[in-house]
Amino acid sequence: MIAEDALNSIIRNAIKHDEIIGDYVAITNWGILFEPILKLSLDSLFDSYSKSNTLILVDCGQADYEKFHLVNKNSNVTFPIGNLHPYILQ
Fold it and tell me: What would you measure as the largest C-alpha separation in the chain, in angstroms?
């Protein structure tokens, strides 16, 4: 819960505005969010942020239509894409 509160604070302070896409948050080097000790639910977290702002996740792995893989498709570190998959650009 501490990690989630800290992440929420960081993201709220990182919101930028663009005339074309509106408010957005761009996250780079987000592989750290996969750390099991943080106990973050990435799919629900990203879904929550993307409802009110454009969420840009700068690539740090590979995605297929079911899961995002931290390093590549052979990686054991994944999360389900769920409703995010329409927004993936490869």
Answer: 39
